[in-house]
């Protein structure tokens, strides 16, 4: 191939095909909206193809072989396909000026669904071009390399294809490998040996990327950027003083300082907004480069959030997020940090601290780190713990940290001597300018001010009364604008400002008291649900769910009575209109019932078409504190008799599960991954899109909620969700939510008779006591109900939060994830802790389950003994993963209590070892004394002797009775 123009054409066509398939396949896979940058890329690539095609056309006649001429013709087919892609991309692109991003995304999703056959045909055509082009390119390359040996060349091209297959594991690599090959071939491909070397180089590159990606994925968690996204950008008129050396030391600290810089201020003063402003500002990077003096500069941030998930307010979340950003910025750290770790192994806080020390040491004098950590006061633990952790990050002079918090005593003691700033002392001018901007940009206020210039005094008055609290100003202006829109005169506006409460707490009280009395019950329920979710570290409910709480007031069993719409073709056909109506209703009613205290927020972790893209959360931590500490009793009183947040949340889950297709659940967006490396982004993209992930996550969320709150959840809701789950998932539901070793217990029996055993598996003690069936009737001949229930209660279990990965477990920790319910919240890809409860076992025994079945008790003890043979580090990790306290599965006390309950109800150990177990009466004390202690073994032996004595007495009395009768 003598002319490089043709190779450029080949590379462009390959990239065109790859991008086209990406757009079309995204649509085909349902609800994946094409991003605008892909649309633009297609058009740019087509221009490149036209340009290179024109260059090829200028070549002298006869300069191209037949195969090369055939390649040129593919540019014409690309032109035809591009026209169709352009139409598709227009349909898939978001419309300018649309009122609702969510509704527009739903329009796109439904278009994808209706056009899936046409889209599939387009993908087929693109693949056909790809295949033909590869064949022609193979012939041209063989001719160019001077290789006529078909067998030899076939081996070379097979190696190239194998590399491409491996690359297919990472979607972004498909096509990219051959494009790179073409570019390299332009300069150096002349012999078969060079092709072989090229194949090896690409294979090694792919292996390196896969290794890096698999370990980086252990650091990523779903909400890693949510809090950062939630923080509003600084207003254009604020914080201009931040880099002014006359007002603060911040610029000097960035340029030449060390250690900590402490931003502190009152609640609601705008600390998080300032920290985001400082982190993103171009001056920050410029000044830090002066500090780095030519060395590599790495910045990273973490924003604690008291209203978020556990990872958003814990040391684990802080350290994982920061380490992820460090390794992403400097991939050379990966080998040192990951070489001793197993892939997908969860991190511990201790390991993360050690990793930071290693990174700091490796950085030496050639890398400088600056961290921005916001909201230390929103950390879920004690202040001294987070102070200690952050101090540990400051290992050397090549690291410094800008942090923020409220001026609590512990933080003041730790950071008062560090350079810093007090926010409320610096924002008076900002608040004045912000108030001016918001009011004077309102046309109604402008007209009122023209009629009465005294309105200008209102601006000054608000600024003076704010006392540096931006949140108060925000709420006041929102309130005042309602009067301004109604064209109220100055005197009315003046009275309104004069009557405004001077503190946030008083302002919240006023807002709540002014809510229309007819809405008070619904409002109280909304706040109670939001408070419960925050307190128990559960994910916020999507916006759609909050329409349920109004229906629940009139129809408490609405969710159980809801039919399964998610599989109704007529419902799915008009889904966009229905979703749009739900969204409009929810938005309007939320404002009526909660004013500004509960707000819809976008969760950028999810695609706009996802139900979870919009969720409802409390406006600010101060709102949470006000209602939780001062107003909780009033909320309960106004919510109505019998209301429980736990039950309402369960009903919301059930209603959503029945109403919307699973494709709309938990659909993460790639937008939040834009800052990630390609390897990590693609891995997260693939693992988070699968429908079985969405289904298992939805089931996990409901059942884990039920397990924690079942006494407050109506039986009808539990039963309806079980029936819906089985109907929706058919026979596959056990595979989605139980460990592999237990699925046989559920698949071997008809689903309609498994609700009670399922409840025993989930430790639903209250439900079991209310609904136990001693004689299941029609199931009588099919299974021993009591034995199955007790077997499942004694099994280590968990509910999957992600689909199980392929392959056998090879390490104790992986084995534990499969069989012992450990849960890695960091990656969100293991099991939820559901430890065996002694109380649940006692409940089943009291209901009549037979403990004398030796197989059950022996299997339980053998599993425990096997687990205890693992190394101490693994046992500790499992205990931490399963939860602290006596309820953890690996807790000695926990297992002892279960064993004691079994002994008390007739369980006995065989006299000698046999096929079922090596345990026997002779060695029981020796094997279990290390776990139960001498006193525990003695207590169990005492129980066994009493039972034997009672049994002996019963036998003697029975013989005497029969002897007397004879």
From TrEMBL:
Domain Nephrocystin 3-like N-terminal: 238-406
Identification of the protein by name: NACHT domain-containing protein
Organism: Apiospora kogelbergensis
Entry superkingdom: Eukaryota
Keyword Lyase on entry: no
PANTHER family linked: AMELOGENIN (PTHR10039), NACHT DOMAIN-CONTAINING PROTEIN (PTHR10039:SF5)
Domain spans labelled DUF7791: 514-661
Keywords, ordered alphabetically: Repeat
